[in-house]
Amino acid sequence: MRLLYTYIARRLIMSTVLVLSVFVGLFLFFDLVTTLNHIHHGGFSRLFVILILGVPAKISMLFPMSALVGATLGLSSLAIDGELTAMRAAGVSVGRIAYAALRAALALGLVAALLGDFLGPKADSLARRAQAQAAGIGAAVNAQGLWLREGHSFVDIGEVLPDLSILRLTIYRFRHGRLAHELFAASGRYRNGRWRLRGVSETVFQEQRLIVKTSPRGYWKGIAPSLLSVFAVNPHTLSLVDLFRYIRHLQRNRQATTHYELVFWYKVLAPFTTAAMVLLAVPFVFRHGRQGGLGFRLFVAVVLGLIFYVFNRGFGDLTLLYHWPPLLGAAVPTLALGLICLWFLARAG
Length: 349
Hints:
alpha+beta; 2 domains; 62% helix; elongated
């Protein structure tokens, strides 16, 4: 039986990797079209780097649907060759075939999760830096924040929050190669063409002395928030641990966290979503074994995957709109799909 499980798993893994490669390539082409207008420096080499750095995030996003189409492709090829019929004649139940498919899906799901949790955040950080350079923004991103150059000044932004407000702004102004002025603000919001700062402290460096001024408010006509949006945290590219910590951080800064919590539960439930997708492919192939060819089955699988994707995201948007618990918004579509799959499996068996 172990040999049979390995054979089914190998066929499903190969077909899923093939489908995932096609989907990722398709989405990279869409990104290529949309990113071309924002590339002002670096040419196609920098554009290529930006696209490649987005691959780990796309693998995590597209894997559940790729598992459905890949499982349909792999099982359909077994059905066309008569191998599924031979397995059933030898006494192998539909449940055992579904178990073998689930083992393959879990192995690939683990790889996708590792890519999303370990490579995703680093790749996203590098991609944001490359996007800023391509857009003509002299910027550097590191663990201490975001550094920008503005004329003869250097700007250090500690953090860009989801609403595009900023924390821990420091501006260093130089004159004749020497530091002449330093401005620090605890936070800032963009209003009416300028930044309104809070908790401002200014230091003026003169020949023989320092002049320090403090004020509860201040203003800065600096970089527009539309450019800073490149450096706002994308919840889909954070690991589970980092996303959990960031949610707590936003709560301490009185920021809305519902969207981030929803993405957190999407990530937690992703393996279960993948399992439900693969389970859906098993009874679908058995029920339509004599109806239509491989193209028909793949077409229906893609349509089913798109329907679930739209329903899943749409229900999540309803969660944000009506302020339902984020866990409910992430779990209900997957739970509904799982129940439908179990019902189909019971009928197919």
